[in-house]
Amino acid sequence: MQKKRCLIITSDAGYGHRSAALSVSKALEILYPGQVEILVTNPIQETDTPTVMKPIEKGYDRSLRFSPGLYRLSYEVSDSRLVSEVVEGALTLMLQKIMADTIREFGPHIILNTNEMFNTPIGKALQDAAPKIPAYTVVTDLADVHSLWFSPEPDRFYIANEWVKVKALESGVPEEKLVISGIPVSPDFALNQVEKQALRGSLGLDPHRLTLLFVGSSRVSNLQDYLQALEHFKTPVQAVVIAGGNDELYKDLIGSHYDFPLEVRNFEKNVPQWMMASDVLVTKAGGLIVSEGLAAGLPILLIDYLPGQEEGNVRYLLSHQAGALVQNVGEFRAMMTYWLEEDGIRLSQVARASAALGNPEAALTIAKALWDAVILPPEPKLLPPTVDGSFQALKKN
């Protein structure tokens, strides 16, 4: 059988878009080995076509770090279908040719998109395609989802939960286009379940110490202050820090000493294992990192969030009692103490709430849907029953 070609279009404005794309790609390779050819690409950065979008995307992290108020204002002002339609027109002018060239060169049987900016340019590039190429979109936010995600072009949207479904319906997306799958995280969360203490031992950690996983990035500040709050803590702890490309943080921590064991990594491909070996996740409120924490069933302590879409992630987590938001070191230490009182009964309750929200199988669910879309013929539409009670298939014009 000829390999089926899946084009996954993503972005590098932040961590979540590419991570979701790679998770689905990995799931396809696991479920259909040797049967799928996959291209994960960011057409803005990975083509020679000049566009004003290149410096905008490269400057995304910097603009968020130094101008969060301006970002929040632009996010809120543009968050309506009316304004989004204007933005989509501009994006189509800038990106339609890039998308068309990428699609033509790879020749996909199906397309998956993980960034809201690309829906309309992909749709316009495909409008004259014959045969029709299905185009699906994964929405990578948990709650406050921008209207730009919900353009009419995608054939299907994979979304996190009922909160996102309400916003999609309000934005005019037909319900039959919506699938609640969860945000795709690495299939390892679903497939590689290992007993926690054994996993700690394999990673060089103390199997019996309470383990906190800190995940940073260039947009997370004051992480070291929260580490220092664990010194002289009543409960024996150990900490793992994944700096997430924050080179300054990584170098500082490599030379630091605490009164508890500390493991420091910069970039880490094996995040699922570190999460499944941990007891608490400490991080910012990004949709993807929160989804990973939920997939691992971890209580989540949020120490930062991005104005705009990440505020909804905070509300989602807190409303389901799967974590807490702490805004300073004192609150962090107090929350940890509260969770661990009475033999950690509250920590266990929060962990159960987190696991109930998690969707560790989301990438596998989406990968199977992509495969089915290019393997299975569409169901024939039926006319109303005839007088003898039989049904007739609709004839093609």
Describe the structure.
This protein is of the alpha/beta class and 397 residues long. The protein folds into two domains: 198 residues, Glycogen Phosphorylase B (Rossmann fold, 3-Layer(aba) Sandwich), CATH 3.40.50.2000; 170 residues, Glycogen Phosphorylase B (Rossmann fold, 3-Layer(aba) Sandwich). Helices cover 45% and strands 14% of the residues. It is built from 16 helices and twelve strands. The strands form two sheets. A six-stranded parallel sheet has the order 2-1-3-4-5-6, with helices on both faces. Strand 3, helix 6 and strand 4 form a beta-alpha-beta unit. Helix 1 crosses helix 16 and helix 5 crosses helix 6. The longest helix has 29 residues. It is elongated, with a radius of gyration of 23 Å. The two termini are 30 Å apart. The relative contact order is 0.13. The C terminus is likely disordered.
Proportion of beta-strand residues: 5-15%
Unreliable segments (pLDDT under 50, ≥5 consecutive)?
Answer: 69-73, 386-397
Return the average pLDDT rounded to an integer: 86
Terminus-to-terminus distance? 30 Å
Structural class: alpha/beta
CATH class wording of the largest domain: Alpha Beta
Q: What's the overall geometry? A: elongated
Q: Please give the count of helices.
A: 16
> What's the CATH topology label of the largest domain?
Rossmann fold
Order of helices and strands: EHEHHHHEHEEHEHHEHEHEHEHEHEHH
Report the strand count: 12
Radius of gyration from the CA trace?
Answer: 23 Å
Oligomer: single chain
Total domains, how many?
A: 2
Spatial strand arrangement across the major sheet: 2-1-3-4-5-6
The biggest beta sheet is recorded as: 6 strands, parallel
CATH fourth-tier homologous superfamily of the largest domain: Glycogen Phosphorylase B
The percent of residues in helical segments reads 40-55%
The CATH architecture of the largest domain is 3-Layer(aba) Sandwich
